């Protein structure tokens, strides 16, 4: 099944108005070269519009047709393309560069001057080309709101969204991008003094919302991982404590066992016991602790009980912790001298 296209294109000429599917825009440009006919009067325009068929539109396969409008009002999007001669198209050379923020106002000034129409009753667009460092060419496209409404009225009556542009504007826009949002920037529109400000505000809000989502997503992932690691650590610690308890029960009246248990119970809070294994005269501990505390811990144990012999080995590379110190995993072997 063929997917619904994003929009349709209605191309006016002095004789008719032809509808095209957006997938056939290349053929439209070839079949309808720029037309320099004079603008029709109201009677001629009504005659052209009367012959427009809204029921079906031919696609690439002439044997296949489908409806333009379905049962939902406003479901169709139509771009109305007219000859350049049907609107005011003027070019103006300016002896200085026009800032982007001031270009719409400059174009509006030229449009009102050439069309003798009040700004609030005018639709326009412009194209700015920098000729050199000190000169700009401003091409202004303009027409009255009344004329634009007459051209779009057959489509708006059926609830369609309409964009109006000349063939030159269409040619420029369709070469770059044929998406509806891109073509909207090239179509004729009324002057909106706060358009740039509103666009910046929307862009800022979008960035803020995106940053907020990223921060919250990152925080959620971090705390979820932290919770998982905490649960695993608690399970491992419980297993270790159970193993120590079982070993203690087997070592009745053993001075070595009492010494090992004393060392384990005296571990500082910064040291986490991860694994424990012991026999009659030898014990193995695996701990996680800040690197700078490992040597201090071994030295303290040696000073506390000279009858024990300690050997240790670092198991993992240094890794950053939440306390701005390097945390390592270490294996410690304890045996009788």
From TrEMBL:
The chain crosses the membrane at residues 204-224. This is Uncharacterized protein. The lineage of its organism: Bacteria, Pseudomonadati, Pseudomonadota, Gammaproteobacteria, Oceanospirillales. It comes from the Bacteria. Keywords: Membrane, Transmembrane, Transmembrane helix.
């Amino acid at each position: 099944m063929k997917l619904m296209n994003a929009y349709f294109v209605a191309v006016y000429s002095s004789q008719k108005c032809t509808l095209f599917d957006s997938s056939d825009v290349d053929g439209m440009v070839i079949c309808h070269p720029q037309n320099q006919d004079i603008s029709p009067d109201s009677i001629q325009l009504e005659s052209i519009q009367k012959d427009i068929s809204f029921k079906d539109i031919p696609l690439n396969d002439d044997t296949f047709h489908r409806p333009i409008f379905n049962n939902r009002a406003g479901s169709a999007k139509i771009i109305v393309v007219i000859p350049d001669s049907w609107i005011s198209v003027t070019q103006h050379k300016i002896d200085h560069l026009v800032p982007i923020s001031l270009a719409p106002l400059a174009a509006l000034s030229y449009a009102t001057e050439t069309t003798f129409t009040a700004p609030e009753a005018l639709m326009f667009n412009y194209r700015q080309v920098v000729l050199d460092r000190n000169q700009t060419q401003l091409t202004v496209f303009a027409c009255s709101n009344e004329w634009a409404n007459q051209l779009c009225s057959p489509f708006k009556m059926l609830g369609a969204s309409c964009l109006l542009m000349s063939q030159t504007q269409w040619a420029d826009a369709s070469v770059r991008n044929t998406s509806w949002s891109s073509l909207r920037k090239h179509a004729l529109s009324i002057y909106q003094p706060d358009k740039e400000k509103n666009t910046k505000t929307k862009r800022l809000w979008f960035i803020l919302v995106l940053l907020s989502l990223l921060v919250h997503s990152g925080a959620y992932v971090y705390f979820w991982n932290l919770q998982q690691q905490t649960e695993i650590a608690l399970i491992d610690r419980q297993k270790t404590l159970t193993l120590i308890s079982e070993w203690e029960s087997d070592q009745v009246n053993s001075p070595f066992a009492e010494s090992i248990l004393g060392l384990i119970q005296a571990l500082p809070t910064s040291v986490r016991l991860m694994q424990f294994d012991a026999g009659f005269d030898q014990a193995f501990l695996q701990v996680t602790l800040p690197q700078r505390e490992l040597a201090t811990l071994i030295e303290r144990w040696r000073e506390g009980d000279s009858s024990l012999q300690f050997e240790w080995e670092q198991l993992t590379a240094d890794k950053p912790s939440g306390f701005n110190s390097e945390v390592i995993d270490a294996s410690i072997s304890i045996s009788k001298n």
